[in-house]
């Protein structure tokens, strides 16, 4: 599966966060992630509005339905959701309530970030989530999910997977 420009930018941003942590910087993971993803929405080629909890730098509004969302308005109404994202550091399986919010989203990109102790646990969660997408009747061909597992071992690392529903 081929990552598009938004997915590549998100992946690069998340990798930078893990690199910063592993280089000795310490921060609140969720806050750092939502801040940097909101800032990413302001790239000149996109210039999307952004909502996130705590209204971090780069966010135009506080949290709206999702931990992070990028939006477009026409001056009166919401017209487009380029991205919705949920972060869960203690997911309760592939039917996690935060992940299920992504199932019903009509967005171009759905980002699911979660923390697990091992690569095997990451793969198990990702495969379970893909199965959940397939079982969700309103899923549409072309729905894009970027899975990002923070594998929390001695040295944190990321495991990415992209799923495009077919």
Q: For the report, how would you describe the main beta sheet?
A: 6 strands, mixed
H/I helix tally: 4
Secondary structural class: alpha/beta
Kindly state the percentage of residues in helix: 25-40%
Q: Strand sequence of the main sheet, in spatial order?
A: 1-2-3-4-5-6
Question: Could you give the count of β-strands?
Answer: 6
Mean pLDDT, all residues: 95
**Intertermini distance:** 12 Å
Notes on the structure:
With 166 residues, the chain is α/β, with parallel strands linked by helices. It has one domain (5-164). The protein has four helices and six strands, in the order ααβββαβαββ. The chain has helices at 5-22, 29-40, 97-103, 119-135; strands at 49-52, 68-73, 78-88, 109-116, 144-151, 157-164. The chain has a six-stranded mixed β-sheet with strand order 1-2-3-4-5-6, with helices on both faces. Helix 4 links the parallel strand 4 (109-116) and strand 5. Helix 1 (5-22) packs antiparallel against helix 2. The model has no long low-confidence stretch (mean pLDDT 95).
Question: Could you give a quick summary of the protein structure above?
Answer:
The chain has 166 residues and is of the alpha/beta class. It has four helices and six strands.
Characteristic key phrases:
alpha/beta; 6 strands; six-stranded mixed beta sheet; 33% helix; 27% strand
Break the fold down into its secondary structure elements and pairings:
Blueprint lengths: L4 H18 L6 H12 L8 E4 L15 E6 L4 E11 L8 H7 L5 E8 L2 H17 L8 E8 L5 E8 L2
Parallel strand pairs: 3-4, 4-5
Antiparallel strand pairs: 1-2, 2-3, 5-6
